Amino acid sequence: MLKLSRLAALLVAGAIVSAPAFAADKGKAFATVNGQPISQGVYEAFVAEQKAQGNADSPELQGAVKEELIRREVIAQEAKKKGLDKNANVQGQIELAKQAVLIRAYLSDYVKAHPISEAQLKSEYELIKTNLGNTEYKARHVLVEKEDEAKAIIAKLDKGEKFSELAKVSKDPGSKDKGGELGWSSPAAYVKPFGEALGKLKKGEYTKAPVKSDFGYHVIQLDDSRPMTPPPFEQVKQQLQQRAGQQQVENLVKELRTKAKVVD
């Protein structure tokens, strides 16, 4: 499966929702609180943000936004009276917040200018289907830290001991209390050594040698297999769109980072 950086996932989430609109007349005062104006631009950006989150524009929304902005201004003024706006940590957080808005605006613009086509999504869908294969497997495993431990488990299985009992010593918290059961899945869903070993087993067989992965050593048993029926394209289209968008942003960030001149 595709692995994306947390940065890309967070950035694309903000970009696709679309950044708040920037009002043309930012200088016009929307309201004044204790002599301090709240600009029309701030009001319109707040309304746009609420609409992007699915709230319908209405007199009720506009009134709620106005009240919220007034409350924020009152609190902000009190913070300034205490000199908190001069605090280095607060100033740093303000700069980060400004940067986040600019990033969302830029990525929103980039995503709109580079839409992902239906053909691209269908191509990705077909590639995923190919990688997943035509068969899914119901497997169980025992995960241990050392190869000798895995060999000892295999020796016990050879003597007829039950896999479900031996799985109680597994280091995998998600399956150890279920007899090592992992449920139905494609070999491609697992780390490569595990998936390859699983695909070679016949129903009822277990691996005769420990399978090493980044997690430790596995003893794997195949309980059953069946033909895989992938979900139709339309059912997973939204997920494919999100995944493609994340990859698009990840590639953009990598490109910009490569070109950047950084001096420590």
Structure explained in plain terms:
By secondary structure, this protein is α+β, with helices and mostly antiparallel strands. It folds into two domains: 1-125 and 232-264, no CATH class; 135-227, Chitinase A, domain 3, CATH 3.10.50. It is 53% helix and 15% strand. It has helices at 6-17, 40-52, 59-81, 88-113, 118-132, 147-158, 163-166, 192-200, 233-259; strands spanning 29-33, 36-39, 135-144, 181-185, 211-213, 216-227. Strands 4-3-6-5 form a four-stranded antiparallel beta sheet. The chain has a two-stranded antiparallel ribbon with strand order 1-2. α1 (6-17) crosses α9 (233-259), α2 (40-52) packs across α3 and α5 (118-132) crosses α9 (233-259). It is elongated and about 85 Å long. The two termini are 35 Å apart. Mean pLDDT is 88; it is low at 1-25.
Please render the helix and strand layout as text.
Layout: H1 6-17, E1 29-33, E2 36-39, H2 40-52, H3 59-81, H4 88-113, H5 118-132, E3 135-144, H6 147-158, H7 163-166, E4 181-185, H8 192-200, E5 211-213, E6 216-227, H9 233-259
Antiparallel strand pairs: 1-2, 3-4, 3-6, 5-6
Helix pairs in contact: 1-4, 1-9, 2-3, 5-9
Which structural traits does this protein have?
Chitinase A, domain 3, alpha+beta, 264 residues, single chain, two-stranded antiparallel sheet
